[in-house]
Each structure stands twice: as C-alpha cells, then as structure tokens.
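To: structure desk
From: M.T.
Subject: fold request, one chain
Message: Could you run this one when you get a chance? Sequence is below, nothing fancy, just the single chain.
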Amino acid sequence: MRAALRTLLGQRARRRWIHIVLGGAVFMPFWLVGTVVVGAFGGGAPLGNRLGDQFAAYAVGLPLAALAALLPLARPMSVAAARTLCGVAPGRFAEGPARGWGARARSAGWFTLHVGLGALVSGASLALPPFAVALMALPFSARLRASDLGGYGHLDGAGQAWLGLPLGLLLLLALAGVVAATGALLAAAAPRLLGPSPADRLAAAERRAAELAVRNRLARELHDSVGHALSAVTLQAAAARRILGPKPAAADADHGEDHDADPASDFVREALAAIEETGRRTLGELDSVLGLLRSGEDDGALASPGLEALDALVRGAGAARVALTVRGDLGRLPEAVSREGYRIVQEGLTNAVRYAREETVTARIALSGDELEITMENPLSGPAPVARPDGGRGLRGVAERARLLGGSAEAGPVDGVWRLAARLPAGGAR
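Reply: Done. Structure tokens follow.
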C-alpha cells in the first residue's frame, strides 16, 4: 500500500501531472474555437454548460490542434516540456524543428495526444476533488444531504450519508490512478513520437563529423606549433643548464676562490631549471588536451594538477618573487575545486608578473568552512594596464571556471595594485 501511494504521489508523478495539466491549458484556445463552431452549427449556446456540447467542442478542437502541430517549431516546444516533466532520458528526444512530413506527422500525433488527454485529465482534476470532498462531508452537513447532491445519490438519509466517505475517497484514488496511468502512457509514447527520425540521425552524424574534423585540425595545429615551441624551449633550457654546469660544492683549493659566491650564476641555474620543469609539465598537459580534442582519444581523465602542486608553480615563476600563504588543509578539497583553484592561481600569477615584474606577488589561499578564497595582489610598477581588445581571454577563463563551480572571481587594477579575488564553494571538502 505504501509503495502504491509513493508511486501515485511521488515527485515524478507530480511532475507528470503538471505536464498533463499543461497540455490541457494549451488545448483551451482550440476548445474555445470548438465551442463557437458547435454554437453556430449545432444550435446550442456558444459557451453552453451542456456536457454534450462541451464534448462536441472537444471533438472539433482536436483536429485543429493536430493541424497547428504540423508547424516545424511545434516539436522543439513539445520536446522542451516532455524532457523536463516526463521523466524520460534527454538523449531519447530529437533536437531542433521537425524535418520532413513524417517527422511532422509524428510530432502532430504527440501534440494531439498530449493536449487531448491533458484536457480530459485537467477537467477531471478540476471537477472531481470538490465533488469528492462534498460527498465525504455529507454525514456532517444536513444542508448538503438536503441538496441535489444527496438526492442524486440517494444519500439524503443520515444513515446512507456515511457512504459518501468511502465513495469520495475512492473517487480521489481513482483520479490519482488515472493521472499516474496517463503520465506513464505519455512517457512511453514521447520517445517514439518525439524521437529522432532517420533524417535527424543523418544530420546529427554530419554535424558530428564536421565538429570532429575541426577539432582534429585544431589538435594538429596545436601539436605542430605550440608543442614544437614548448619542446624547443625545454631542450634549450636543459642544454644551457648542462653547459653552465652544476653549482660548485666548495671553494677552489688552489686559488682560494669561492665559485658559489656568484649570485648571478645561481640565479641563472635556478631560472633554467624552472623553465625546464615548467616546459616538461606543460608538454604533458598539452598532450592530454590534444587527446580530448582528437576523436577516440578521450579516456575520461585529463592530466591537470591541483592545489597540491602550488610549490612547483611558485618555483616556476622565475624572476618573480612570490609570497605564498596557505591556511587550511587543501588536501580536503574535492578534486574539481582543487584543479580549478590551481588554474585560477596559475593565471593570476601570470598576470601579476606581467603587470608588475619588479614587485613581490602576494598570494593567499584560505580554506575556511565551505569556502575556498584565493587572493593575489601585486603593486603596479607603472600605469594601469590598458584592457586588450579581446578582453583578456585568460581572465575571462578565470571567471568562467569560478562560475562553473558556483563561485565568483574578478581581477584588475585597483588603486595602484593589480588584484585577483576568487571565491569557490568547497562544500564537498572531505
């Protein structure tokens, strides 16, 4: 019994009921036209209350709804409503307007079925609950028993009136069962009538082939241009570091000179090592990105570091001095938040170094409760940077990454300081 009630009153059933009532509401203009036709040619009043006239108007309105649904744009509207409310997998529906008369006919069939059943169930949903409640109130109201309601059902006596309670309850349960059955019927018919036709599948395959061709071309260009440049930079940095030689461990015994006292040589060695490390790491990330672009090479995993790699990122800043402060256990962050946070810090560091090379970049990463806060600041070494014509793709990417996680991010010069501030939700922290 409980399982049956959950089926009748569950969230999916409620959504399907809304979908059915929506069909009834859409049918109202066609029914009104039907009432005018019936009133003009059937001898009745245009909006008469006779049940026969109303069903006659219903019969006139259904063909009109079917004709209207032959328009190509009827399918996208029907698909949008069914995808949201019917509880059917989104991938089983066709996309875009109906192509060809076969697809239009199937869309018209669905539309007619939806609005036809919706009108009947909507009418029952409006009429039956008040009637059922009145029946259940008969034992408690002498006025109701004396009314037509009690007389029609021979429930005007005090003893017979108690039958109104089970009758009213049965009516409500029957209505719920009809709603559930109608929703299940529409959910079963939706993929067949609104699903993709052979022409839709062919068009989708052609679009997919064109997209893959563009992605493969982009992957080739990135591999041949950016990949080659990164490889060359990495190899040149490694060669220069080998020629420079290792850092001397002790003073020269013969001349008494301390070769380790040359800060310029030490700086060059550290910079070359950072360039080599960054180049090799970026080549690995580029290879993963190219795999995502190419057809059939996406294994579902993108090699991307998280905030645990902050130390390596700071070492790769080269000449920039970075004062990094971390509060909280970043290892508790969900993988997606850690990965996007790393990319935000990476882009912020790139811009901070670009706009103020001679100052120390201050970076603060704090995990407090359910929020990860990232702040980066650097005093500007000159006039405020002028916005680029493209709006700054990197900073736009930072804002997009934050929004995808439900957070926010903004960056730019403020009172002589270049500043990036981002807040990311970390509710899933382990």
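Reply (cont.): The chain has a mean pLDDT of 77. Let me know if you need anything else for the meeting.
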